[in-house]
## 1
Amino acid sequence: MNNKKAGVIIVDDHKLFRKGVEALLSDFDFVEVLGEAGNGIELLDILKQNSKKPDIILLDLSMPEMDGPEVFEILRDEYPDIKVIILTMEDDNQIILHLIQLGVNGYLLKSADTDEMETALRKVLRNDFYFSDNITEIVMKDLLNHRNTPKSVEIKLTSRELDILHLICEELTAGEIADKLCLSARTVEGYRAKLLSKTQTKNMAGLVLFAVKNKLIDI
């Protein structure tokens, strides 16, 4: 990662919580807080009024006027380059799985400690996704609960696509995958785009979730 700090916007309807997260982030030398909002409407206003867009948005789910899921769908369509980490008290398994399938880059509970927050931010910036141990556990439980259910999507991947999928799931960047497989970074990006298209997933987080749920990788 270069010396440029990643811009972050905090979105939560509790001002004291926003200030607490801002204070926490001030200890990280690789990010800077660009702003904060109390709901989705305020966030969209900030994005429209400022030419400098954040790299990451920390987004609560339950907010007045426009909540997290509603604003996320707008972000996904209008600002696809902005990464979104859900930061919430909501630990419902189906909500978590649904949001990852929609394309969020990470999911953190507000009970997470400082180290996990830093890890999540770094991994989302580096790899486009972050799965905590509890998210992996949720995915595995969902797998066990539906182990007799046929796969919802049947796809055929080439051996090279499977190689790249495995390395993505091991959290290697496009550059690292390129070095490991003696390919160009552009070629790897092409494979990544093809994998997203074939699996009908939104981003790397959704791709990893798809790979786990369809038993394309072992974890």
## 2
Amino acid sequence: MSIVLPIGFFVGFGLFSALLPQTFWTVFFTSLFFGVILYITFLVENIFLVAIGSRTPPLYRAAFTVGLMIVLITAFFLFDSLFSFKLIYWLNMIFVFLISAVIFMYIFYSVTIELPDDGGDKNFWEFILIPSFLISQLGLVFSFWPVGIFKGSIYLVAFVYIVASLVQLELRNRLFKKNWLTFIWITLSIILGVVITTSWR
């Protein structure tokens, strides 16, 4: 699983950068961005591999936070590239499901390496298939909803963040009522933002 994020970022960035204007400064800054983020990604994976054996909570938590940010950036690149192909709705749904499945597999891995039993008592597929199905249904909705490619990708990433946060809290047995209410309000705010900013003309 330690190769998933570097490969995902490489593929997502490669597809996304092909959509940008190929000027000197665009290529320069995107190449710089790619190099820095990829280097940080390798650092995160190295810390995860060390954490498996030594259980170093402060270092692990910093790496998890940074890793989650890179996961969201990667998800945006992949979703934006996918919607740019303007595929039929059912293909969007399938590809969003596959992308989300890989993302939630990585989330499961990055959370459970801190747990005492490495998540052995957790239902692996339950934490992968259900969240991926939910995100794929949103991908289906955004195939029809006139939000545009960029905003549609941003909204999908926002929902990935919400679901991933709930998944990692549940894996750590910290999904309390307060957390549920917080993410319900965040979800309602995003839905309201989607409705308000949508132009049907």
